[in-house]
Write a structure and sequence with these properties.
The chain has about 525 residues and is an all-alpha fold. The protein has one domain. It has a two-stranded antiparallel sheet with strand order 1-2. Strand 1 and strand 2 form a beta hairpin. The radius of gyration is 22 Å and the shape is globular.
């Protein structure tokens, strides 16, 4: 039997080499300039545009892009066997995901911290921008409504997580005031903050908050409204920064536990090209999602991170590096599935689910370094729920950005209140998301989210490729991944369309056609620019 230590060590080496060499190559190719002032300084407003120190912004970015997706995706896709998933996570992360995140971040920074939609408008046209913003807005509405339900159900099932999350928010407010009002330096504030963070986890285990699902939904909707309009330095930055230490602890603890226990692989390396979730191509690449590449990351990079980047030289560690850390998390998640038998693996589906499988696996690893098994499982579940909440309010802010940017006037036109008032956009996002969450219709379109997410990645890579071509720079490192992601996404959407039209699910069929239309139109509008620029 194969020892998972080999899988982990080889993956770590490849990810480190990818950051060291390919990340450096991308940085030089795009032309990172440490002397160029970033939008965080040139457009500083104290609300969204606020320069952040590198570790703080890395914590925010990593916490926002991670969530539960790099855990759910690889574990679910392991139904095809652990080997194809591993290849996609490692090489997809290095050559597609990290490049996608890094280039999206820099493209946004060079366009005043605006979204990828603004990049598309400047390089492709106004129609392209509107199509992108409409698509990204409704994709984020789906994220907000779905994550509201997921977090609410988690709080009902694990009330300890609710207590800890509430205490995290209060701690983040104190941390933000401490750092930005210069009460204490970042290093001392971090030490105190991390100690208090784990104290919050402990208190959560002692005093769980037990409320109904409906009440939690209302509380969460109220919370995300205020979290979205509050200046980033008060809550978003410090909360995500501190929460990132939960995930760092979980990852490091799991790594040490794996090195000590050295478990063997029991799951099949490869099972079959077709499984109950679909064909390996394209479904594996859509299912793994954030573990290898995710369009949501481009929204985070160009939505909040680009507005807080202190210096362009920080973009590599934040954009490229954070994605590789997430790929490492995906490898750990895959290992938790690989060390169990096929029969036990299938016993987790559909319930209790991939997160439970991951929590049990990591809890076992933590037990090897002295944690009681149940405490390790509970801690892992708490960490995952904390990051689901992080993704929830980040997605709300990003949806508000998309709403406001849609109404930004063209040159010579007077701006309306819809693009200048952050409260209106946030109210719209919360109302639509809340209605969708209560209606239950989110469940009908959730199967399309994976495809929509990867389509978003393909469109972001397309926008960056056109931007680089317009400056006369090489863009093969974004163009070829873009072609692959379009192939994956369009194939998946065609399969989803025929599958659902045959079962009479016309809503999913219509949405699949709609996404196909957006992809084809944007591809057509952009390809002419891309073709002309790259051949002159």
């Amino acid at each position: 039997m194969i020892n998972v230590l080999w899988i982990l060590v080889i993956s770590l080496i490849l990810l480190i080499l990818g950051y060291r060499f390919y990340g450096k190559f991308i940085s030089k190719s795009i032309g990172v300039d440490s002397e160029r002032k970033t939008p965080a300084h040139t457009m500083r407003d104290g609300v969204d545009y606020v320069p952040a120190k590198t570790p703080v912004l890395l914590g925010h970015h990593f916490a926002s892009i991670a969530g539960a997706a790099p855990i759910i995706g690889p574990v679910t896709a392991a139904v095809y066997g652990w080997f194809p998933v591993l290849l996609w996570v490692v090489f997809g992360g290095i050559f597609l995901g990290a490049v996608h995140d890094f280039s999206s971040l820099l493209a946004s920074v060079r366009h005043q911290g605006r979204s990828i939609g603004e990049v598309i408008e400047e390089r492709v046209g106004h129609t392209g921008k509107l199509l992108f913003l409409v698509f990204s807005f409704f994709a984020l509405i789906l994220v907000v409504s779905a994550f509201t339900i997921i977090v609410a159900k988690t709080f009902v099932k694990v009330p300890e997580a609710a207590t800890s999350s509430a205490l995290f928010i209060l701690l983040a407010l104190l941390f933000g005031l401490s750092v930005y009002r210069k009460v204490l330096p970042l290093s001392i504030s971090t030490i105190i903050g991390v100690i208090l963070l784990f104290l919050c986890v402990y208190i959560g285990l002692l005093i769980p908050i037990k409320l109904s699902f409906q009440l939690w939904v209302i509380i969460l909707l109220i919370y995300i409204f205020f979290a979205s309009v509050t200046p980033v330095w008060i809550l978003l930055q410090p909360r995500d920064y501190l929460n990132s230490f939960l995930l760092y602890t979980m990852i490091i603890g799991a790594l040490i536990g794996i090195f000590i226990s050295r478990p063997s692989v029991h799951l099949d390396g490869y099972t079959a090209f077709h499984q109950n979730i679909g064909y390996l191509f394209p479904i594996l690449f859509v299912t793994v999602a954030c573990g290898a590449i995710s369009g949501f990351h481009s929204l985070v990079a160009s939505g909040t991170t680009a507005k807080q980047l202190n210096n362009e030289k920080d973009a590599r560690v934040i954009g490229y590096g954070a994605m590789l850390i997430e790929s490492l998390l995906a490898v750990i998640a895959l290992i938790t599935a690989a060390i169990i038998t096929r029969e036990k693996y299938h016993s987790f589906f559909p319930d209790p689910g991939p997160v439970a499988l991951f929590a049990e696996g990591v809890g076992g690893f933590l037990s090897k370094i002295g944690f009681p098994l149940q405490a390790g499982i509970s801690f892992t579940a708490l960490a995952v729920s904390a990051f689901a909440l992080t993704s929830l309010d980040t997605a709300t802010r990003l949806a508000r950005f998309s709403f406001q940017e849609f109404f930004i006037p063209r040159k010579g036109e007077k701006p309306s209140i819809l693009c200048t008032n952050r409260f209106i956009g946030t109210i719209v996002v919360v109302i639509i998301s809340g209605a969708l969450a209560y209606s239950g219709k989110w469940q009908a379109i959730w199967p399309l989210f994976g495809s929509a997410n990867q389509l978003l990645a393909a469109i972001a890579l397309l926008a960056v490729s056109v931007w680089l071509a317009s400056m006369g720079k090489r863009n093969f490192y974004t163009k070829y991944p873009m072609v692959f992601m379009f192939a994956v996404t369009l194939t998946a959407l065609v399969i989803i369309f025929f599958k659902n039209i045959s079962t009479g699910n016309y809503i999913l069929s219509f949405l699949a056609v709609l996404l196909l239309a957006v992809a084809i139109i944007l591809g057509y509008l952009s390809s002419k620019k891309l073709f002309i620029r790259t051949t002159t």
